[in-house]
Design brief:
heterodimer, A: 281 residues, alpha/beta, Rossmann fold, six-stranded mixed beta sheet, four-stranded antiparallel beta sheet, 10 strands, globular, disordered N terminus, B: mainly alpha, two-stranded antiparallel sheet, 2 strands, 76% helix
């Protein structure tokens, strides 16, 4: 309760949104757009994610919180198999996208990553023009089409990321000239350009100033109308402000997974309560 | 206390003197060559061929041969080195035995004396590969089975390979992992990521590797002694199986094989001057390109 109240003070715009949510949420156990079942991820002998089961619903934002090293990023990166290239990693259990096993042999990882987009902690635009950054995913996936198609897709993605009006006159400028917040929105536009169904965000605002953070959060609220969004954050206020569901992870285990309002106001586990009231982490 | 100060002072003096000595040596070498070589360095010297038992004329065939050798060597060695560097940096599992063995092989290659490369080139390229080509395509008529430009270029490419590999690999590793992650997360294959993101951002390093290889290739003489460099040729090489003249080898020839030492001396000085100048020039051009690329990258940031 404290954290949502504090956030409503800081961001009056979001106040109504926070209150509007909570009610229309489905039950957490219902099968979602994406889900994990008894997911365990091991780095060699070290267990990073321990038998986690949870569902991610479309048109909702699911936040994963927990102290550093609790496995929340590993869990997120297991969803689009970004961990695959790490030597010695082992994934057990299931990751499901529309009911299909993501780790099944013969899965097209390239296609999976097109459908499940990702935004990283540090804004990481390529040192190319703004236009080429957004065009990148379309080009590598053979979705570029004619120049007119490409132009309109890039405009659509930049509009969705609320960046079009800021950059439409300088699409050929190098993306690294943008501010940090603009760079992160460009990365979101870049991810949206290939029309993903799920958007994974790995602490997307932790490297940004408060104003840019607020913009990203408002953007997420817009985007959830069309996408399934999963966000990892160690900023509890952010989770309270933006998400519909929140999962609390501790040393790789899922401690609590509930509608955000209830997790932050009436946590069912004392460890969750200890964490959200700042007694550890 | 005084004693300690004294030791301190003496040691500073010693290290300073060592530095001065190096500077002086470079100055003497360069100054001496520039001083003696300058007077003979004319347009005619650069464009004429050696005459009268190398006591007159110019060194154009040697310049031509050196440039041709370096170009061919680069054409073969740099793409090969880039491929190896890409494998090491992007594909190889760094914990695997294969990786450790191949990595060690590259390190060992860098430590092989250059004369051994020459013998390797003679045995492998000239006799084995060249001989096989002659048997297969020229009905045993001696064409490629003898010292030739192509074998010298290949030998030099192998010699400079470790230099290219190490510097390109360094450049590839300097490309932030976040670029690779971003590319992979957008559905790019590893190969697409390498060609569209990693290599373009490592271009400065690829050029550095090329610079170092060219600098080394232009100056090395030992490896090409048996595999293609000629003492004297009346014609410029026109075919890959032709022999060629080389500036470094020409310096050796002028300084040991001349019938008239006094007449050859000015030519020798001027030839060394040209060899140094050519190496410096090649480096300078490449460094200029690299600096421009770096500035462009920095300007974007």
């Amino acid at each position: 309760m404290n954290s949502s109240a504090a956030s409503a003070r800081d961001y009056p715009l979001l106040k109504t949104q926070v209150q509007a949510r909570a009610t229309d949420a489905p039950a957490p156990k219902e099968a979602g757009k994406m889900g994990v079942e008894s997911l365990t991820v091991l780095y060699g002998a070290r267990v990073a994610v321990n038998a986690v089961s949870m569902q991610f619903h479309s048109n909702l934002i699911t936040a994963i919180i927990g102290p550093s090293g609790c496995g929340k990023s590993t869990l997120l990166r297991a969803l689009n198999r970004m961990n695959d290239s790490i030597p010695g990693i082992k994934v057990e259990g299931k990751v499901l996208l529309d009911g299909a096993e993501v780790y099944a042999p013969g899965t097209d990882v390239i296609q999976l990553r097109r459908r499940v987009g990702m935004v990283f902690q540090q804004p990481n635009p390529f040192p190319k023009s703004i236009y080429d950054n957004v065009a990148y995913g379309l080009r590598v996936n053979g979705m570029a089409g004619s120049r007119a198609d490409l132009d309109s897709n890039i405009e659509r993605a930049l509009r969705q990321a609320a960046l079009w009006n800021d950059v439409k006159d300088r699409l050929n400028r190098n993306a690294l000239q943008l501010s940090g917040g603009e760079q992160q929105r460009l990365c979101i536009a870049r991810a949206l350009a290939v029309r993903p169904e799920v958007l994974l965000m790995d602490e997307p605002a932790s490297a940004l100033d408060p104003v840019s953070t607020a913009k990203i959060e408002e953007l997420m609220f817009e985007l959830k109308k069309d996408y399934t969004i999963v966000i990892v954050t160690h900023n509890m206020q952010q989770a309270a402000r933006c998400s519909d569901f929140t999962a609390f992870l501790l040393t790789g285990s899922l401690i609590e997974f509930n509608p955000t309002a209830s997790l932050f106001t009436t946590p069912s586990d004392e460890r969750t309560e200890a964490y959200i009231t700042g007694r550890f982490g | 206390m005084n004693r300690r100060f004294a030791i301190d002072g003496v040691f500073i003096l010693l290290t300073g003197l060592a530095v001065l000595m190096i500077v002086a040596m470079v100055a003497v070498v360069l100054g001496n060559i520039a001083y003696h070589g300058w007077e003979r360095l004319t347009w005619q010297f650069l464009t004429d061929q050696p005459r009268a038992g190398m006591t007159e004329g110019g060194i154009f065939p040697a310049i031509f041969g050196t440039v041709l050798l370096v170009l061919l060597m680069t054409l073969v060695g740099v793409p090969l080195g880039v491929c190896v560097a890409i494998y090491f940096s992007e594909y190889a599992d760094r914990t695997s035995r294969f990786y450790r063995w191949t990595r060690q092989a590259v390190n060992n290659l860098a430590g092989v004396p250059s004369i051994v490369f020459g013998l390797f080139g003679l045995g492998f390229f000239v006799q084995f590969v060249g001989g096989a080509i002659d048997d297969a395509a020229y009905a045993g008529r001696l064409t490629f089975g003898q010292p030739a430009l192509i074998w010298a270029a290949l030998t030099m490419a192998v010699l400079t390979l470790p230099v290219v590999i190490v510097s390109v690999e360094e450049a590839l590793r300097a490309v932030p992992q976040s670029y690779r992650d971003a590319s992979a997360a957008l559905g790019a294959t590893r190969t697409q990521t390498i060609f569209r993101v990693v290599l373009p951002n490592a271009l400065a390093g690829v050029l550095t590797g090329t610079i170092l290889a060219v600098g080394r290739g232009a100056g090395e003489v030992a490896p090409i002694l048996f595999v293609g460099a000629a003492y004297f040729l009346p014609h410029l090489p026109t075919h890959l199986s032709d022999q060629f003249m080389h500036l470094g080898y020409h310096v050796f020839v002028l300084s040991t094989q001349s019938p008239d030492v006094e007449a050859t001396k000015p030519i020798l000085y001027a030839t060394v001057f040209v060899l140094l100048g050519l190496t410096f020039l090649l480096n300078l051009v490449a460094i200029a390109i690299r600096t421009r690329l770096r500035l462009a990258a920095a300007g974007a940031r």
